[in-house]
Amino acid sequence: MKKSLFVVAVMIVSVSLLLTIGAERAGAQGPAGAGASTAAKGSSNSSGSKSSHSLNPIKWVKKDKDSKNSIDSNGSRSDTEKKLTPKLQAQGVLPANSNATDSCAAFVALNECLAALHAGHNLGLDFNCLRASVTGVHASADMSGCKVADGEKALSLNKAIHALNPNADAKGATKNAEQQAKDDLKNLGA
């Protein structure tokens, strides 16, 4: 009994000593912490200046000054697709009865669509199946021959190629198709 009473007394003294030391350290910093008054002065005085760092993460993202001229904006994307259609048809990448605008409608970025078109052409894959796998959007086209199940999530081009043709070098085909897409856009001056 005396031993347990002694242990409890030592614990109480230890806890009170810890709280005392902790209170002294907090008191040394001041009520708002070290440097709080300087920071408060700086943020109120420099709110109009551009030298201070904003705490708003949206302001950390650099905005593209030429965003209106980017390929993915609606006006110039359709122009680029119209220019690409005859070139892709001449290469045999796009069938003669279709155009790049309709084929790429489900894709967010034009370069992703071009890479899928080239990958499908290079490996002999059905573009409708590849498009459905990459975008997750199942069009009204005949999907009965596709290995992709309805309601499946969008896959990367690499994984979609592997799902449709497990024997293909999906990584190499993806890299090659992405380079061809980049070259197509570069040749247009886009």
Q: Which features would summarize this protein structure in a list?
A:
single chain; 190 residues; mainly alpha; 8 helices
Tell me about this structure.
It is a single chain. This protein is an all-alpha fold and 190 residues long. The chain has a domain at 73-188. Helix content is 58%, strand content 0%. It has 8 helices and no strands. It has helices at 2-29, 36-45, 74-91, 100-103, 110-123, 127-135, 157-164, 170-188. The chain is elongated.
Could you give a short description of this structure?
The chain has helices at 2-29, 36-45, 74-91, 100-103, 110-123, 127-135, 157-164, 170-188. By secondary structure, the chain is an all-alpha fold.
- Taken in chain order, the helices and strands follow as HHHHHHHH
Tell me how many strands there are.
0
Describe the main β-sheet briefly: none
Q: Hey, roughly how much beta strand do the residues contain?
A: under 5%
CA gyration radius, whole angstroms: 31 Å
Whole-number mean pLDDT: 76
Our count of helices gives: 8
Low-confidence stretches: 43-49, 65-74
- Distance separating the two termini: 86 Å
Q: Estimate the helix proportion, in percent.
A: 55-70%
Overall 3D geometry? elongated
